[in-house]
Amino acid sequence: MALHMAVEVVRDSEVSLTAQIQRFIKREITHGGLHPGTRLPSSRRLAHDLDVSRSVVVEAYGQLVAEGYLEASQGAGTRVVRHLAPAGTVVPALLDEDRTPGVRWDLRPGGANQPPFPRAEWLTCYERAVRAAAPSAHAYPSLAGDPGLRLELARYLGRARGVRTAPGQIVVLGGFSQALGLLCGVLRRAGADAIGVEDPGHPGQRRFAEECGTRPVPLPVDEAGLDVSALAASGLRAVLVTPAHQYPTGVTLHEERREALVRWARDTGGLIVEDDYGGGLWYARGPRPLALQRRAPEHVVYAGTASKCLAPGLRLGWLAAPGDLVGPLLRERARYDLGGETLTQLAFAELLRSGLLDRHLRRLNTQVRSRREALDEAVRRHLPGARVLGPAAGLHAWVRLPRHTDEAALVAAALRRSVAVRGGAAFRARPGPGAPALVLGHAHLPRSGVTEAIRVLGELTGDPNTRR
Q1: 10, 70, 225, 280: which sits with the fewest CB atoms below 10 Å from its CB?
Q2: Is residue 197 a contact partner of residue 219, using CB atoms and an 8 Å limit?
Q3: Sign of the C-alpha dihedral, residues 302, 308, 309, 311?
Q4: How far is CA 309 from CA 98, 282, 326, 373, 398, in A?
Q5: What backbone torsions phi and psi does residue 272 show, to the nearest 5 degrees?
Q6: Which sequence spans correspond to the domains of the chain?
Q7: Which ranges constitute the DSSP H helices of 276-416?
């Protein structure tokens, strides 16, 4: 295998070439440039690349093997030893999801709560896209995204969600986080330094908005969704909402409040950011509510993502924006990058065009519905007095607990029984007591796992230590 490795040597140095190679490799291993298990070039290849005698490299490798930095075996070549402790990794606060390894049942939303990826369909679409891609697909992409994908998204969103948009009003981005960052930048430049957010809501989005220099203002949510009267009294010019399946309570924004929210936008010239994060995951009986955007396309930015219906690792999202907002969004984006990866966009466009995404969603909704039914049944059986809010949709459910439950004590006790759950308090922006609740991700577990985890929670709610 003709591997290459960048090594610095100085030929007129008083230090021998063997010692220079040895010291360089040792330093790279110590400082994290060469990681455990990394395969190095053969002595013959490295000697050729450095234009030195092979014996120089053989001697350097041999000394590093003797000192325990490298390991060599017949047929496997020379590698950095695997047992070296890796360098510490700094995890940005916005991405730190408080992992708890080793639990039997992890019911926390996000992270592991991800349904299976449609590998066969994606490979089919990716191959078609690569074979059909014009040479322009390998050039720098359009800031707004591939034109073919924007056309397919306009068609799909109009058909499946009732979104009223055109390809020229769609911007393809690297997930909702990038979309939120760009929107915060555009709002700041327009003189708006704050945005309303739902409470309870997504704590990561609140932190992200703050990191982008925009102040999140919590607005209360009840069983009818966002309290629009609180928004109207706030003096805000923008609000971020999840009307179809509120995150995390799961409630759908009531019809009267939808009308009130649109009136607020028209009366104040305000901007509504509609985060339709569910991505087609709707398996409740009856029709799914259409997008809020269709009621006031000039005041609503519709945001969607492939993270829930496919995989967050694709980093694929989109905005359907009012026409006068597209230019500012693209200018804001141009300050940070030159567009998204084109081949993934072409593959996703083929997934939409071929109908394979619809087929995947039907299959996925059937699977997740079965697990949600198991959750509902287990809550009725093992958590008397508890209630699952909202329609059956998405990858998680909000379970309101009896008022006598000590939420924090229950979460801690569940972890000791190898069940990881997240309490409702983690999603509230404002301090103070709220009705005890759990936010449970259920899409990735078998029915038996959902039932067993809820049974354990039921046993714990009978413990005096988890009661107020």
Answers
A1: 10
A2: yes
A3: positive
A4: 23, 11, 26, 19, 20
A5: -105, 125
A6: 17-80, 102-114+359-466, 119-354
A7: 323-334, 342-354, 356-382, 407-416
User: What amino acid occupies position 18?
Assistant: T
**pLDDT over 90 at 402, yes or no:** yes
Neighbours of 424 (CB within 10 A): 21
Structure tokens at 385: 């007095």
Segment 400-417 mean pLDDT: 94
Q: What is the topology classification, in CATH, of domain 119-354?
A: Aspartate Aminotransferase; domain 2 (3.40.640)
Amino acid (1-letter code) at residue 414: A
CB 297 within 8 A of CB 264: no
Other beta carbons within 10 angstroms of residue 414's beta carbon come to 24
| C-alpha dihedral sign at 180, 181, 183, 188 | positive
Q: What are the pLDDT digits (tens) for 253-298?
A: 999 999 999 999 999 999 999 999 998 899 998 888 999 999 999 9
Distance between CA atoms of 106 and 109, rounded to whole angstroms?
9
User: Could you tell me which residues are beta bridge partners of residue 275?
Assistant: 303
Please check whether residue 291 is in contact with residue 153, taking contact to mean a CB–CB distance below 8 angstroms. Answer: no
Hey, what CATH topology would domain 102-114+359-466 get?
Aspartate Aminotransferase, domain 1 (3.90.1150)
* Cβ-based neighbour number of residue 323 at 10 Å: 12
**pLDDT score at 100:** 54
Closest listed residue to residue 302, CA positions, set 281, 278, 286: 278
pLDDT at 99: 54
b (16+ CB within 10 A) / e for 116-153: eebeebbebbbebbeeeeeeebeeebbbbbbbbbbbbb
**DSSP label at residue 116:** P
Is the Cβ–Cβ distance between 183 and 301 less than 8 Å? yes
Q: What is the CATH number of domain 17-80?
A: 1.10.10.10
Residue 230: Cβ within 10 Å count: 16
What tokens appear for 161 in the block?
Answer: 């969600």
| Burial class of residue 46 (count of CB atoms within 10 Å of its CB; 0-12, 13-18, 19+) | buried
Beta bridge partners of 172: 318
Q: From the CB of residue 17, how many other CB atoms can be counted at a distance below 10 Å?
A: 19
Cβ within 8 Å of residue 66, ≥6 positions away? none
Tokens of 79: 């590698």
pLDDT for residue 393 is more than 80: yes
- The answer to whether the beta carbons of residues 408 and 425 sit under 8 Å apart is yes
pLDDT greater than 70 at residue 97 = no
CA gap 451, 459 in Å, rounded: 12
